[in-house]
Amino acid sequence: MAGKNPEFELGGINHLALVCSDMRQTIDFYSGVLGMPLIKTIELPGGMGQHFFFDCGGGDCVAFFWFPDAPDGVPGISAPPGRPEQGDLLSAVGSMNHVAFTVPPERFEEYRRRLKAKGVTVSPILNHDDSPSGIAREMYDGVFVRSFYFQDPDGILLEFACWTREFTDADVSHTPRTAADRRTPTHA
């Protein structure tokens, strides 16, 4: 689906490391609700905390640190304040906005129903396209990915997504914005 890397032979994401408030609750959600096997646990030296790894498929992992002194996250700064259909996607520079897991297109709607049946609040299905709104009401050839969003017990924004078409050179057509294009946030 992507071009070849001429510099490094990368095989994907080894792991994405996040921070949780309650490792037991995190295991219950990621293994119990999402079915990801817990494959490695580490007790950090000197009482610094824990680091646990969950297999999210394709040789990739999502991992969590638990630190006894970690400050609480701040919605809208350390992560988006909610799911995309609730409005604001904003999070701070250097923050982790969301984690998207690849799911098979033929099981996409089934997986949404299964999460709802498990009591997880999920967003409506979003058919992402190149229209001015970025979202199509119905599937058509211009939709490049379908997704829906939900949150883990710590409010981390998660997404199940499936690509719907191959990309071409025409899919890379926007001029990158720079730091000079940013608007400085105002504080009350």
Automatic annotation (TrEMBL):
Pfam families documented for this protein: Glyoxalase
Gene3D superfamilies linked: 2,3-Dihydroxybiphenyl 1,2-Dioxygenase, domain 1
Residue ranges constituting the VOC domain according to the UniProt record: 12-163
Transmembrane stretches, start-end: none
SUPFAM superfamilies: Glyoxalase/Bleomycin resistance protein/Dihydroxybiphenyl dioxygenase (SSF54593)
InterPro entries noted in UniProt: Glyas_Bleomycin-R_OHBP_Dase, Glyas_Fos-R_dOase_dom, GlyoxalaseI/FosfomycinResist, VOC_core
Name of the featured protein: VOC family protein
Protein species of origin: Actinoallomurus oryzae
